[in-house]
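Notes continue from the previous slide.

Worked example: a multi-chain complex. Inputs as given:
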Amino acid sequence: MLHLEALSNARVAPDPNTQPLDEIDPTLQIRFQLDQQDPLFARLRREAPVQFLRSSQFGPMWNVTRYRDIVDVELNYQVFSSDVKYGGMLIKDLPENMRRTSFINRDPPLHGEQRKVVSPIVAPTNLMRMESVIRREANDILDALPVGEIFDWVDRVSIELTGRVLSELMDTPKDERRLLTYWSDIVNVDLEVGGEIDTEEKRYAKLKECAAYFGAMFNERKTKAARGDLISMLAHSPATASMEPQEFLGMIVLLMVGGNDTTRNSITGGLLALNEFPEEYAKLRSNPALVEKFVPEILRWVTPVPHMRRTVIRDTEFRGQQLKQGDKVVVWYISGNRDEEVIPDPYAFKVDRANPRTHLSFGMGIHRCLGNRLAELQLRVLWEEILKRPWVIDVVGPAKRKYASNLRGFSAMPVKIRLGS
Amino acid sequence: VQVPIITFLEVTDAERRVEASVGETAMRAAVNNGIAGIDGDCGGVCACATCHVYVDEHWFEKVGPPNEQEERMLEVTTAVTARSRLACQIEVRADLDGLVLQVADNFR
């Protein structure tokens, strides 16, 4: 009984326009599931751009919601730390024995040393090779889609394409690609969703299976000549050849989630946006060259990673507020991406925006998304190939958004392809 | 007043000569002239590394080395060489007339 009540409480979000400012809680998952987060952030940007939230499911925190302030926090890693020893970049403080470490939750110099190991995966030459792989896989996937029948876009296209690409990057058996996207989901699923993962212990147990799977590959590739896949890169680099188990798991998880989940949700969110703004869809169909602008606009619109967490490591004044050592700070990219001060007409999805690359979806500063070019490449190639077909892809039922504030995700979206002119 | 000319070498090996203004950055000159591979996503605050260039060897000394924040960003950028700079941190000066910059992120 008690449990049920707690659950139902957790799933009702108060009206952010009538709450006292220090009680407005942007972390409530239900708002994201219902796509109702915008008014809350609009009020915070306007009235309390560096807001102190007294209490939340993740404890007290500062919420930074304006575009330029977010950039300033991200540039100042000397004060706003990502290091796992203070809690890392996750809004939720995990028990110490379940924390995963990788370069995303390290500060310089360790951050740079580890990141350098895997960054060749997105070197220009490798991206050029990946472009043809992605085009081949995209066409293979698109060719198999039914016309005139309802199917799930998330499963058939978004997960499928990003799963295949990730499998290529990690050089795992192609027929085991769904394992990767499965584990990636395990990492991010909210415990309250009520599925098989309802405790951190269960999550950790599943992720250990994932670590074992990749551990075997890692050990095998260590004995062979160095190759261009991520696992081989890790196995052959002095900085990562002998990682502690939590470091190894952290690295794998980072590459897995970063390497598919974010782009997966952008693929879904982009199609949904075109359906919500049909004139934009028509514009794009009549001028496929707009894909160049459409892709960054998808990223702004979807903001697949809605926030990151930092921790203050020395007392500092920021925009008139006194931040104390140890304070949790959350930068809300999803809010910065709707900041009227920087982005004109931010609530409109436009395939021909003047400066579509002005967005925070990759973050800024030293932790900027390593795979940004690869994400753009997947979106661009997929849409180039879609637009070569005489298709209009209609969303024919509600898109199912995930109950989560750590990722903006979709679990399903029913669509039907019709032949357009 | 002399208008400094900067030559950008694009991926396709296209040579693009653009007019720059003293005081603006090389990134701004590139973006204003649609140089492929120079995006300048962060608007020039050294936060995104989407304006990575290789300074021509004859010019490197005159342009100078990266500043500290730029070093940090270059550390997390791919395909960095000893002549890497972020164009948003190169301020155009009269004596940089003729500068040659090769676009590093030569992918797009």
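Summary box: The mean pLDDT of chain A is 94. The radius of gyration of chain A is 21 Å.
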